[in-house]
Amino acid sequence: xxxxxxxxxxxSKLRDAPHKGVVASYIPELGxxxxxxxxxxxxxxxxxxxxxxxxxxxxxIQSISKVLSLTLALNLIGTEVWxxxxxxxxxxxxxxxxxxxxxxxxxxxxxxNAGAIVISDILYSNLKNPKEDFLNxxxxxxxxxxxxxxxxxxxxxxxxxxxxxxxxNLLKSFNNIQNNVDDVLDFYFHQCSLTMSCSQLNxxxxxxxxxxxxxxxxxxxxxSQVKRMNALMxxxxxxxxxxxxxxxxGLPGKSGVGxxxxxxxxxxYSIATWAPGLNVKGNxxxxxxxxxxxxxxxxxxxx
Length: 303
Ligand code: GLN
Known about the structure:
- The protein is an alpha+beta fold.
- It is built from twelve helices and ten strands.
- Glutamine binds at residues 62-63, 94-95, 113, 157, 164, 192, 256-257, 282.
């Protein structure tokens, strides 16, 4: 069975699933998306693409952007990053605050909200035009100039992102935010509002499957940094469901509350899914099932 047939079989099994989860509505703009969307896209290392369903429809990538902001921070200041944020799985929800108090303002890892807000602060200090420069970096990684922020989503989160405001202020009280809190949050909300399709996500994440070299052939991370990024994705990419994702799917990956997931098999492929219904942990319900079916059917997990 070829990859296209496998994706089609998974899509037809899941498309009519009675339980699709719940679309995130705490960011009101995200709540407008139809739960019926289901896209799956595979990009192999030799740049063959296979796709089914809404794999070319752009959606809000939300926390998936945390991997990209960390990549840029590593590019800019290298291992200095690890003085400001730890590399341990949190075992807690993405917006959990009490650990931050307990660990005196050093977030558990860069893939939960508090950690990503610290990374945003680092970028804000080191980029001339943070929003523009970050967007250009992502466009360059994906080799695609059409990728953009969705300002309606960014503004929607700005109005309702109370927990992120709390996290940023707590971080500031521990001196782990150097810039103005509102500026850093505005930048963070813009990053989360990045809009991409499954096909574009695979192109952007191609480098994590390809030893740090992007789809256009430019090297952004050295092999040791790529190893670390993939280690962080597998241990922290799904919050308090990282164990479940490794157990069921067996790939480094990252989810977002827009319903997207992107995962990589180093040396082999990148795969992205979009199904906006989330499970109770805030990860795409059908996306996780689709990826479990894919690695089980093909035997292509890293374990
Ligand atoms: N922008 C969202 C937030 O900060 C991202 C969360 C997510 O995708 N898990 O709450």
